[in-house]
Design goal:
It is a single chain. Helix 6 packs antiparallel against helix 7. This protein has helices at residues 19-28, 49-56, 76-90, 109-117, 149-159, 165-172, 177-192, 201-206, 210-222, 230-244, and strands spanning 7-14, 34-37, 60-63, 96-100, 121-123, 137-138, 142-143, 194-199, 226-227. Strand 2 (34-37), helix 2 (49-56) and strand 3 form a beta-alpha-beta unit. The longest helix has 16 residues, at 177-192. It has 245 residues and is an alpha/beta fold. The mean pLDDT is 90. It has a single domain (7-244), classed as TIM Barrel, CATH 3.20.20.370.
Amino acid sequence: MVSERAIFTTSWDDGNPLDVRIAQMLEDFGLTGTFYASTGPEGRRLISDRDLARIGSSHELGVHGRSHEIFPRLSRHDLAQEIWWAAEELSQFGVVGSVVAPPRGKLDGPTARLLARMGYSVRTGAIIGSQSRSRSMLEPTFHFYPHRWKTIVRNLAYRRRIPPPALLLAYGRRRDFRDRTRRMLLSGARHQRYVHIWGHAAEIERLDLWDALGELLGAAADLGLAPVSNTEAAVELDRRAKGAR
């Protein structure tokens, strides 16, 4: 159990070779993350076994499916096989958490219920997270990417969840990406006692956001947030929600 200070977690999708750079940056600041790699030969895992083992030695690994197929398109049998195969494959390289990140953030009710029966929580694909807190659904605070408002509104409509007003205000007050993400970090820590940043190494490389990421992680470290994996975050948020009732 972590203390009542704000908790901090990160998650990184797809299994890119540059995930190793993110892992090292997290370690440099005393932080941690959960790395979700599609694991099968038909998936998008570009990262080598060696690099995945390097990450798994210090960070949690998370299930992202075998083939990167959209979960709601699969039959229940095929989805279960995707999850089981991926968890077994990843276990060669480190500790596999009990949180699943559906490819492209696509999820529906039947899929969520099946994953819950299999013992998994779901990390959603929220661009800006909602106030929802449960062990079965882990909402990120924000996606580390300079989205336009049109994309954000579409994402909110798809997920049918409303972000906390303070988080929306923090996002909308500044156009500068570095200032915006810093304000969202501070808002999550202050108002929700929880910050969860997620992203993709390929996007960070393409947009040259490495310095911005380093500044944000440094700010999180300076705040003294409690670093946890995605699984630890899901458990802790569930504990706090039950304690508040």
